[in-house]
Amino acid sequence: MTQQNRISGGQIDRSRTLRFTFDGVAYAGHPGDTLASALLANGVRLMGRSFKYHRPRGPLSAGSEEPNALVELRAGARQEPNTRATVAELFDGLEARSQNRWPSLAFDALAINDRLNTFFTAGFYYKTFMWPASFWEKVYEPIIRRAAGLGSLSRQEDPDSYDKGFLHCDLIVIGAGPAGLMAALAAGRAGARVILADEDFRPGGRLNAETLTVGGKPGAEWAAEAAAELSAMPNVRIMLRTTVIGAFDHGIYGAVERVSDHLPVPPEGKPRQTLWRIYARRALLAGGATERPIAFENNDRPGIMLAGAMRTYANRYAVRVGESCAIFTNNDDGLRTATDLQAKGVDVVAVIDARSEGALLPGIRHLKGADVIDADGRLGLRSITIRHAGGRTETVPVTALGVSGGWNPNVNIASHHRARPVWNEGIQAFVPGEGGPPGLSAAGAAAGVMSTHGALTSGQQAAMAALGDLGIRASAGTVPDAEDAPVSITPKWYVNSGKGRAWIDPQNDVTVKDIKLAHKENFTSVEHMKRYTTLGMATDQGKTGNVLGLAIMAGLTGQTIPETGTTVYRPPYTPVAMGALAGRSRGKEFKPFRLTPSHKWAEEQGAVFVEVGMWLRTQWLPKPGETHWRQSVDREVLATRKSVGICDVTTLGKIDIQGTDAGAFLDRVYCNTFSTLAVGRCRYGLMLREDGMVFDDGTTARMGENEYVMTTTTANAVTVFRHLEYCRQVLWPEMDVQLISTTEAWAQFSVAGPNARRLLQKVVDQDISDAAFPYMAAGSITIGGLRARLFRISFSGELAYEIAVPTRYGDALIRRLVEEGREFDAVVYGTEALGVMRVEKGHVAGNELNGQSTALNMGLGKMVSKKKDSIGMVLSQREGMNDPDGYRLVGVKPVDPTATLTAGSHFLEIGAAPVIANDGGWLTSKVHSPHLGCDIALGYLKAGDQKIGRRMRAVNLLAGTETEVEIVSPHFFDPEGERLRG
Amino acid sequence: MAEPLHALTALGHAAPKSLAIGPVAISERFDVALASLAIRNGRDGDVAAAAGKAGLPLPDPARFQAGTPFSAFWVAPGMWFVEAAFETHEDIEAALKPIFAGAASITEQTDAWVRFDLGAPDLQPLFERLSNVDFARSPDGFATRTVIEHIGCYLIRHGKGAVTLYGPRSSAASLLHALEVTARSLL
Amino acid sequence: MIIHHPILGPRDSQEFVYLGDASLMNRPDGLTAGIEAFHDYLYNRDNPAGEHRELWYHEQGDRSWLVVTRNTVTHEIVRVELARDVAKAAGRTK
């Protein structure tokens, strides 16, 4: 198709043509175009549908404030909904589709909502979907869900990657318009480290959209030269396509850089977007201003847009919105559009000026004291109706109307720390108030300084003030000549005419009527009004419409605008893709993996791995012919109990504790005593929280007079270390204790079973007979001369050891153990078999260490020494935690050995109803014991120690299971411990 | 006595891995022994004297200092990591303990870490995507703990084009993956 | 947030773990104080709108526990000290 609305000039590259489609129709544009400018050049004004009424809509703006022209970009997995056509850069092959319409953009079935508009007023949801309650789930919610949302998701995985990064600077300048460029020049020339960020792909801000001159040259040219000078400075970083999305505490700014959004597909290896975390010592908000409309009946027709946007399309993109246009304004800036368009040869039919005073534009039909009261043309503007100063009405055919109600400084980021913007009577708009982010100031239009010369000057001054704070000397350069016109505006928020609807927030379909209804129903505070009408709650966050709404409310309540106040803004400034927030942390890269020393060997054996925190541990090792995990696990357990089994236990936390007070320190962090432990011995330790609940457990060995090695559970390795540092630094700083984690420094394997000693004796250099290395011995040994550690401890109830070598030798050691173990039919077992054996032995683990259980609950109450002070000792004596009928750890067996147990089941007396009053406790861990040939479990049972031998029911209402069980001792296996001392 | 056990690198190979991605060279180092050294309460003077005599540097906070045979970097108040050649000091703990004779707590750390040395004309573009460290303004000899893709690491800046990273050994593959992906995104 | 570490200078609060009120430093002696005193120590807190002393741990840094004085209204951090120094200055010997 021809670009029939393309006019002369502009900052587009006419030497290249870009092909694209919109709703399947092919069009052409040029580099430098946005999707919106290219569509307008091709005579397409209709680009979307509104959310509630499905009204046909065209672009209202030429920037990121756009509420109407939301489209789906790209196809397949890269399809992205709710993209603003006004900022989407055109590329060759771009596919775009309209959204929130069916079957087509021009004919949308749900536009019936528009006819039913009296029904869909403010508070519609609150009033309509209330009764009857039974309708909510079955009727209302499905209807709302179907109607809700604008674009649609691809429902496929995003094929692109996203990145994160960190930047540091003395000064971040937000916005590369005249104020921002001037500030960056001042700071850059002074040698400060500067980041200049702008959401646009071209620096210059409004200078690209105006015909104004700066320093005697076209503004866009001055901007390009300033940007070139800045680019050459090594201390300045210009970040285009980068939106600063928020100000966070202490000078941290978030920014999203759209690295590849302007390309069909990101280049190989490149992210699509990068989320930057910017540490800035000072910040300057030079984000410009956003124009606001004046509301009148049917002011949402495609072809009606902000006057400044119409000027942008003409001057920057060389596009006229229609062949004949009119301007409706209450301020001088709107007049610029009329003169610029006329200079470009566009037919300006009339300028409707709400103000009665002031000079008339030469050579243009300039109507003073007039209003636009209506617009016609459902799918595209055909005519407007003017009410002249005397009250006479006139309908004028036009295809484009530019509207200007004044400009609102972009105060958003300045109010991210809850600072309330303050009203500036001179420009009839809010400007940044006190109490914003410390270190951030504003300049240019963002600060309410609306002239070009004012922007240049205030940018320079603000930069110098910021650098002055940092002790960086900057010299004031010359400020180039530029227009310095004062703001001339007479407030006008809406045109009071007939009974029709006048839009304030076009995306959420909030009209003047809705504000009036909110007032009538007493939702008059701005916060109530916002939530009642949904004003400003759409994807554009009300950048163009909010001020209108509260100004109208002010008029209705008889208050001034400052008295009425405004809502404040929160991050992000513009919508952020979830992918950018996630960065690389997706799928398998969600978190790093931790691999055990035996990982490579286990992988070769076809092991099944389980994620334990970040660790990948061997869960079981299937042998050929085993088709069910139980076959593998049962075999591993039986072989270990029969002869010997090997398990990688490196993941348990290991903490090296040294110092002359190491023993005394352990006495305070464990509830039992360690200072009396002999060198070369180890002991089971129980660690409490200060509230008396069990925190962690493990074995701690005394390796030397002042040297201990503590082990923690895998899950608590980090939190125990943190806790010990807290005890050492905060509670008892006078103690001589030093800590270091050695979890990863040693590869540690458990060797358990009747033949454990015989196997290890083949491997180690020293005599480890029972006499030389008795139960609970610990010490340094060697393997072929290599330093190693041996601990005679057992989690399985078998004769068992844990042997450790420096991690690089871990792979060799497991291969050695397997090789030397062949004569004993040694197995390597995984975490499942480990779990089976510890339940058979009645050892507590994660399910029992649930943060709500005391030593007494676990049957370990006697371990809490009251002869010494230790964390949790005092509060563990509280009455409620010492109830003789409280929970006790018990063993559980099904009465029928073929019955299955379900973890999480609750204990009930035979015949008792399954109600909370009869709840006796719960079953914490369940395994199948191949040794006993039935399911077994541990559980917490009220007065459990008095109920050994009793029959009860284990009931799980969620799983729908019920099993008759016998309460037994938790020590299913070798209760006397003869095997482990063997 | 049994046969000696063979050693594997943190990445699971017999020999350390080196690779180049554009201008960035990444070399796994397998030849450095590491130990923590922490001053026992009130023994600052003894430790300083012993270290001085042994030629072992104890640099200021957030600093690395090279020496022979021992180099060191600061990790916490009163605590350093000491480096030495693995070939001569495999049992670095046994080598250091007599020097400090109970004035310091010494713990072997060699295999708790994987070490990558990175080289490029300028590593700033890489590290601004990996870590919140202000790499450009950090002096040579700067040493700090930092987080790289959720992995706690020690970063030592030897120059703008030379960095040593120590990461947890078990996460060696994940850390290398993060370095590779980021280096590739800069091509 | 940025915490100005007394040794390491400005560091991102992401590197830290927050514990709570710095009154947790004042742990009673378990052999002389009773349940009441421990209960008060562990559970009773002031909740000031204004300056609040709190414990932060530099887990991804030098493992120092810090006492951070933060204004809960403005988030301004007015003072950062090593908890060990604060505890020693308070004469904690047990």
Automatic annotation (TrEMBL), chain A:
<dbReference type="Pfam" id="PF13510">
    <property type="entry name" value="Fer2_4"/>
</dbReference>
<dbReference type="InterPro" id="IPR006277">
    <property type="entry name" value="Sarcosine_oxidase_asu"/>
</dbReference>
<feature type="domain" description="SoxA A3">
    <location>
        <begin position="499"/>
        <end position="584"/>
    </location>
</feature>
<dbReference type="InterPro" id="IPR028896">
    <property type="entry name" value="GcvT/YgfZ/DmdA"/>
</dbReference>
<keyword id="KW-0560">Oxidoreductase</keyword>
<dbReference type="InterPro" id="IPR027266">
    <property type="entry name" value="TrmE/GcvT-like"/>
</dbReference>
<dbReference type="Pfam" id="PF01571">
    <property type="entry name" value="GCV_T"/>
</dbReference>
<dbReference type="Pfam" id="PF17806">
    <property type="entry name" value="SO_alpha_A3"/>
</dbReference>
<dbReference type="InterPro" id="IPR029043">
    <property type="entry name" value="GcvT/YgfZ_C"/>
</dbReference>
<dbReference type="InterPro" id="IPR013977">
    <property type="entry name" value="GcvT_C"/>
</dbReference>
<feature type="domain" description="Aminomethyltransferase C-terminal">
    <location>
        <begin position="888"/>
        <end position="974"/>
    </location>
</feature>
<feature type="domain" description="GCVT N-terminal">
    <location>
        <begin position="599"/>
        <end position="868"/>
    </location>
</feature>
<dbReference type="Pfam" id="PF12831">
    <property type="entry name" value="FAD_oxidored"/>
</dbReference>
<protein>
    <submittedName>
        <fullName>Sarcosine oxidase subunit alpha</fullName>
        <ecNumber>1.5.3.1</ecNumber>
    </submittedName>
</protein>
<dbReference type="InterPro" id="IPR042204">
    <property type="entry name" value="2Fe-2S-bd_N"/>
</dbReference>
TrEMBL record, chain B:
<dbReference type="InterPro" id="IPR027266">
    <property type="entry name" value="TrmE/GcvT-like"/>
</dbReference>
<keyword id="KW-0560">Oxidoreductase</keyword>
<protein>
    <submittedName>
        <fullName>Sarcosine oxidase subunit gamma</fullName>
        <ecNumber>1.5.3.1</ecNumber>
    </submittedName>
</protein>
<dbReference type="GO" id="GO:0008115">
    <property type="term" value="F:sarcosine oxidase activity"/>
</dbReference>
Automatic annotation (TrEMBL), chain C:
<dbReference type="Pfam" id="PF04267">
    <property type="entry name" value="SoxD"/>
</dbReference>
<dbReference type="GO" id="GO:0046653">
    <property type="term" value="P:tetrahydrofolate metabolic process"/>
</dbReference>
<dbReference type="GO" id="GO:0008115">
    <property type="term" value="F:sarcosine oxidase activity"/>
</dbReference>
<dbReference type="InterPro" id="IPR038561">
    <property type="entry name" value="SoxD_sf"/>
</dbReference>
<keyword id="KW-0560">Oxidoreductase</keyword>
<protein>
    <submittedName>
        <fullName>Sarcosine oxidase subunit delta</fullName>
        <ecNumber>1.5.3.1</ecNumber>
    </submittedName>
</protein>
<dbReference type="InterPro" id="IPR006279">
    <property type="entry name" value="SoxD"/>
</dbReference>
